[in-house]
Amino acid sequence: MDRFDEMQAFTAVVDAGSFVRAADALQVSKTAVSRLVARLEARLGVRLLHRTTRRLSLTPEGELFHARCKELLAGVGEAEAEVTAGAEEAVGLLRLNVPVSFGLLHLAPLWPAFLQQHPKVTLEVTLADRIVDLVEEGYDLAVRIARLPVSTLVSRPLGTTRLVLCASPEYLRRHGTPAHPDEIMRHTVFSYTLLASGDTWHFDGPDGQANAVSVKVTPTMRSNSGDTCVAAALAHQGIVLQPSFMVGQYLRSGALVEVLPGYRAAVLGIYAVYPSRRHLLPKVRVMVDFLVEAFRIPAWAD
92-159+268-294: which CATH number, 1.10.3860.10, 3.40.50.360, 3.40.190.10, 3.30.70.260? Predict the structure, then answer.
């Protein structure tokens, strides 16, 4: 804070042309202004002002420093104005982190409508499937698809998606349809490397967890892109385990069919996650409310 006071006093002196007028503008004593400027010069180890009985002038170092101080002080003023306005209205930059496939398929079409509703908000959307540290990396909000662990973060449910075992009708015609999860091991499979359970696929049976089965698969290909796995299935190459938000459209069209519908894989939550409920900025609040409403009836629902 001392540095801010020093820069503010120095800038006021230059802009006002005298210590007396600067003191009046800052509503402090001339002595206080003189002390702040002197302390600033002592800390920097350079003279910023030439002082005479008639006038003040800037040294070359003073000119450079004055320009930078003006920029910094203006930035502080803009930040304060933005936050003050943001206490009532959704304004400013909103940084989001969202999963790649979900972001492309289901979030990208929503952004124009959000921006039309909230024209004073600027979006910065980063697509990444890794779990980012919201606080450390400076994100206001993230969309996550998972079974969320206990966390200091705040989450708001947006919906659910289930993992679906599926393949194309052509692949099943050529290679047969498994009658039990154990038979998956004899088929060509494509695995998503970021699946929490890895290459071990878990299924609840027809009677729930009482008939639960776990299958260790040996993938023909692993990928950190679910879209790559789905593309292989659409090309009649094998079986995949992918979320309904990705394969729902292909199940409806018949391009893919669910395999072993009596055995259900995990249901994952879709959440809006943000660092704190306290002092929640309107730009974050309106985005969360917007997403909740947008996914009230999800496009991928069974």
Answer: 3.40.190.10
